[in-house]
Amino acid sequence: MNRMYRRPELEIKWPNLSRTDYRVTSQKSQEYNCFAWAAGEEDRWWQPIPGEQFYWPEGVPQEETLDAYVQAYQTLGYEICNGDTLEAGYHKIAIYVDSSGIPTHAARQLPNGKWTSKLGWLEDVEHELDGLTGDRYGVIGQILKRAIN
Predict the structure, then answer these.
(1) Among 31, 82, 89, 127, which one is most buried in terms of CB atoms within 10 A?
(2) What pLDDT, in 10s, does the model give residues 27-54?
């Protein structure tokens, strides 16, 4: 593990990071959030709250439910799948949920099998999927995939 890319402040917020291989891959930004980053965007904030400052796909219920987030990613061609294992020819997204089933975070799988996440207003990190599970983000609620064009 390259300690140069690790941040103790992140390990305090996400304790499982310290037990996994991760690295910081960007500077802090308020331009986009994890849900946009998982969708491959870094110029807007995805959130199902009415208002001009947020983006949400047209026709998807504006509610903070796992079903609504799944529907949002389905507008990009993602479909529900069962495994987080790297599959040739597919992009994958993991949606994390809290104990009430409310989406808290999303991560996108990289070609090397690791995952990339935007940590709120903080940096992007490359990480293992379970590195962000815990009190702050909860557990994996759903994995989605779409064929690479």
Answers:
(1) 127
(2) 998 999 999 999 999 999 999 988 788 9
What would the DSSP string read from start to end of 79-118? EEES--S--TTEEEEEEEE-TTS-EEEEEEE-TTS-EEEE
Separation of alpha carbons 95 and 74, rounded Å: 13
Kindly provide the residue ranges of all beta strands, DSSP E only, lying in the chain, ordered along the sequence.
23-24, 79-81, 90-97, 103-109, 115-118, 124-127, 139-147
Distance in angstroms (rounded) separating the CA atoms of residues 128 and 23: 10
User: Residues of the chain whose pLDDT is less than 50?
Assistant: 1-4
Whole-angstrom Cα Rg for the chain: 15
